[in-house]
Amino acid sequence: MTKSDFIEKVAAKSNLTKAAAERVLNAFLAAVEESLVEEGKLTLTGFGSFSVDSREARQGRNPRTGETLNIPAGKVIRFRPGKMLKDALGD
């Protein structure tokens, strides 16, 4: 599903115009980004939790050539689904 497909779905479910739904979605995404940058975590009860973790530098391998590569340390975003989301998916 693309962002525009998602906007259409939100607009239909919330009885908003597509433009209003897009503004809501963009505001939500900006708030999620801001929370993760400032606090490093965000919990949406029932839906799930986002957190920022650090990943150590490590060795990797180019699958085409087999050449060893150095992968630098960095930050990754983790998502842990909540109970409502797990139940909706059936497992």
UniProtKB/TrEMBL annotation:
GO terms for biological process: chromosome condensation. GO terms for molecular function: DNA binding; structural constituent of chromatin. The keyword DNA-binding applies. GO terms for cellular component: cytosol. Keywords: DNA condensation, DNA-binding. It holds the Pfam family Bac_DNA_binding. Transmembrane segments: none annotated. CDD domains: HU. Belongs to the bacterial histone-like protein family. This is HU family DNA-binding protein. It comes from Candidatus Desulfovibrio intestinavium. The lineage of its organism: Bacteria, Pseudomonadati, Thermodesulfobacteriota, Desulfovibrionia, Desulfovibrionales.
